[in-house]
Amino acid sequence: MPDDDLKGKDEQIPTNLRLLMILEEVARAGVPVKPAMIGKLIGLPKPTVHRLFQTAEAEGFLQRDLDGRSYGPGPRLRDLSVNVMSSQHMRTARLAILKSVAEEVGETCNLATPDREGMVYLDRVETHWPLRIQLPVGTQVPFHCTASGKMYLSSLKPSMLEGYLAADPLEALTERTITTPDALRSELDLTRERGYSIDNEEFMTGMTATAVPVTDGQGRLVATLSVHVPVPRRTLEDLLTALPVLKAGAEKLSKLNVE
Question: Where are the domains of the chain?
Answer without folding.
Answer: 2-78, 86-258
